[in-house]
Amino acid sequence: MNMIARDVLAGNIAQLVFDRPGSSANIFDRQTLSELERQIDSVCADNPRGLIFSSAKKSIFVAGADLHSLAEMDERELREYIEQGQRVFDRISSLPFPTVAAIHGACVGGGYELCLACDYRIATQDRATKIGLPEVKLGIIPAWGGSTRLPRLIGLPKALDVILNGKILAAKPANKRGMVDELAPREYLIQAAVAAIERKASHPPAKRLVPGMILRPILAGKLEKETRGHYPAVFAALDVVTRAPGSSVSKSLALERQHVLKLAATSACRNLVSLALRQDKAKKRPAGDTKKIERAAVIGAGVMGSSIAQWLSARGLQVVLRDIDASRVAAGMKNAAKLYDQAVKRHIMTSREARDGMSRIIPAAAPVPLKRTDLVIEAVLEKLDLKKKIFAELDSQTESDAVLATNTSALSISEIAAATKNPSRVVGIHFFNPVHKMQLVEAVVGSATAPEVRDAAIAFVQRIGKLPLVVKDSPGFLVNRVLLPYLIEAGHYFENGATIQDIDEAMLDFGMPMGPLRLIDEVGVDVAADVADEIAGAFAQRLRKPAVLKQMIEAQLLGRKNGHGFYTYRNGRAGKVNSDVMQFQTGKSAAALTRQQLQRRMVLLMVNEAARCVEEGIVDGADDADFGMVMGTGFAPFRGGPLAFADSEGLPRLVEEMRKLEESDGERFAPCELLKSMAAREQTFYEKRRTDLGN
Ligand code: NAD
Question: Where on the phi/psi map is residue 185: left (φ > 0), alpha (ψ -120 to 50), or beta?
Answer without folding.
Answer: beta
